[in-house]
Design brief:
111 residues
Length: 111
Amino acid sequence: MKKKKRKKENGRREKRWQKEKKRKKKKWNNKKKRSGDDGEEAEEGEQEIEMQVEAEEGEKEGFDEGKEEEDGDEEEEKKGKDRMKKKSKKESKTRQEKWKKDKKRKKKERK
């Protein structure tokens, strides 16, 4: 039981460390771009940011045009996701109940 708990905690820690690493790396890269030793590097960073903004705006415009067609698809996807969530909840509940019953049965057997 303790081993399982430790494994879970270690997995969670590992995920947290990885997320932190990514976040720090992004921060560091952005900081580099903004405050480059040469003025050129800073300008390049600004240009990249501008290009990203333009690309995002273009995506938004394209998304608005195709939105009407995709509305029906999105509703179907949501329904499917809801069904899957309900199924997984039911499965997890049944697993928990089975586990509890097994635990009680084993306890009785020991006595």
